[in-house]
Amino acid sequence: MQSVKRIVQKAENGSLTAAVIGLGYVGLPLALALADAGVKVIGVDVDPSKIRILSQGESYLTTAPSKRVAAAIASNRLVATTDHAAVASADATLIAVPTPLGAGRNPDMQFVETTVRAIAPHLKKGSLLSLESTVYPGATRETVLPILEAAGHEPGRDILVSYAPEREDPGNSNFALADIPKVLAGFDAASQEAANAVYRLISPSIREVSSLETAEAVKITENVFRAVNIALVNELKHIYGKMGVDIFEVVDAAATKPFGYMPFYPGPGLGGHCIPIDPFYLAWRARQLDTEARFVELAGEINSRQPEIVVETLERALKLHAGIELEGASVLMIGIAYKKNVNDLRESPGLEVMSLLRRAGAKAEYHDPWTPSVGLTRQYPELAGLASVPMEGLGKFEAAVIITDHDDIDYELLAAEIPLIVDSRGVYRNLDGRAAKIIRA
To answer: 274 catalytic, yes or no?
Structure first.
């Protein structure tokens, strides 16, 4: 097809124009990677504040440094806009919008559907449309293709279509986007060839799979694997704790086995946009097919319960060691981001723990050097505007709860100043005689 040849030639000669829809933790690094590869990038997001920040050569993500944004903007390799019609000049349009859970933990595809409807009238004939958002197997075919057809586009002919799941790990300095192989499936052979040409510009290797559904299942499988193993180690933590056995010591020792084992560590619950959500997409799909995803459902139950267990552990510890109730207690939560050394609050268990503490009547505050304040979230609007407190005057707190084990926290000062610490991350593995004041959760 002539359209495929045109995309391949433009990718090879450096004249390709790409649009990236959704400039969040996936979309912005993707846009910058394309810009670094010499692609003219149109970044589109419905949030005007993001567009304003980017247009000033600055960034709102720690995983996408302002220096890279400024360089891309200054070279005109990146242009940011809220106008979906801007995709009209794009040879390839890549969608990276959220796919959250709706009521009953069912997939909420509204952002994908709204985006495709918004851009469908403007897509250039012969261009590539690639979905990167994590979805259930079958979603691209069942959701994206009908919208294109309703707009008068024949998939595979007028618009080439692919599914290429994102594999970002925010804050992981060992694996940037350019280090991670790309799983990719085209609607047909022409779509596959065009998508290969585009993604070769930013991926070290391409793993083609046989269908859109297979590519969708690959992404779900990756996250189910992690969710189930994290649930397992969270359950083992409580079982071994009853036996007086340290789960962190167990996992560290087991990890010395050079085969057949991969270490996963317990924590206060799952966070990020993938692992707490994506397994439920598979469970929902399984129910549609009149079958069960029992491991997936059980893992979700175990992991979702962890924030409550942390608060319950704190409540018991306050009574036992300080003789006071959780209601009215002054509690400092260390970290509110979902993982260390990032400012990402998506699905963070820290938000749930903070909400539970405040609902229980605790005077709860948080310290997080990566997250100065909490923005508006869908699940916890009551926490919007809550600000991080400095690591000063720690003596006023009766207890601390470690939720996020950021590297730049003075844990020695914390242990010296606060009489009781509930540690959900194993920060204080070497207790140095302070076992009485440090409680595992």
So the answer is: yes
